[in-house]
User: Which sequence fits this backbone?
């Protein structure tokens, strides 16, 4: 087991300064998404409230399409990771990765803000069950892939503009390992999101009611 952990650590080395920068982008995105909820007009607020109430009612009655949700969530979650990864092997990916990461964080913040505003104190607990641990894990994986993708994209830009060369094969092998590792973790997270999180949220609602 120790041998596999050492191999994992050797393949996953994160630039700490870059990681902190990306964490700030995510924090700003989540905050912006949460604040944006308060700026919606009355019609949009009613639409959001109706959507949340309908979702919670489906949870109470266990009227959820688990198989369809699983397929859609896998495509959406793993697809997002693959998109970031692919942007890293392009010279135009640098800014797009930052924008994509901000949008993901903004969407998460919007969801959290919507739940809390609509359900007050209950909303805090429901929002906690909504994001922990799967959405936290997802964002950490997106952070991991983004940090590698940005470094690789930057190196590619330098190789074109400054005629700098680097061992692309070795870098790409590690980059591919990060993607495969991320897929495994995200798949586990998706399974919990589809089958575990709804039951936890439903339990919290039943206790609070």
Assistant:
């Amino acid at each position: 087991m120790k041998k596999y952990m050492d191999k994992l650590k050797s393949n996953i080395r994160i630039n700490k300064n870059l990681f902190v920068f990306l964490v700030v982008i995510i924090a700003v995105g989540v905050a912006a998404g949460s604040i944006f909820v308060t700026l919606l007009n009355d019609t949009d607020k009613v639409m959001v409230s109706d959507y949340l109430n309908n979702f919670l009612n489906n949870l109470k009655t266990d009227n959820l399409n688990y198989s369809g949700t699983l397929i859609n969530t896998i495509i959406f979650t793993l697809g997002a990771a693959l998109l970031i990864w692919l942007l890293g092997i392009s010279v135009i990916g640098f800014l797009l990765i930052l924008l994509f990461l901000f949008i993901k964080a903004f969407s998460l913040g919007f969801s959290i803000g919507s739940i809390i505003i609509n359900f007050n104190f209950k909303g805090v607990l429901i929002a906690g069950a909504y994001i922990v641990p799967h959405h936290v894990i997802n964002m950490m994986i997106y952070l991991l892939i983004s940090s590698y993708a940005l470094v690789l994209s930057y190196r590619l830009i330098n190789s074109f503009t400054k005629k700098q060369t680097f061992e692309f094969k070795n870098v790409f092998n590690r980059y591919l390992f990060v993607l495969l590792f991320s897929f495994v973790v995200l798949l586990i997270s998706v399974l919990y999101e589809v089958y575990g999180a709804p039951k936890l949220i439903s339990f919290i609602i039943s206790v609070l009611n």
User: Anything to note?
Assistant: The chain has a mean pLDDT of 87.
